[in-house]
Amino acid sequence: MSLEFQIPAEPEIKLFPGKKLMGLRRSMTFTENKTSELWSAFMPRRNEIKNSIGSELYSIQSYPISFFNPFNPMTPFEKWAAMEVSDFNWVPNGMETLILPEGEYAVFIYKGDARNASPFFQYIFSKWIPASGYQLGVRPHFEVLGEKYIHGDVDSEEEVWIPIFI
Question: Considering the entire predicted model, what is its pTM?
Answer without folding.
Answer: 0.94
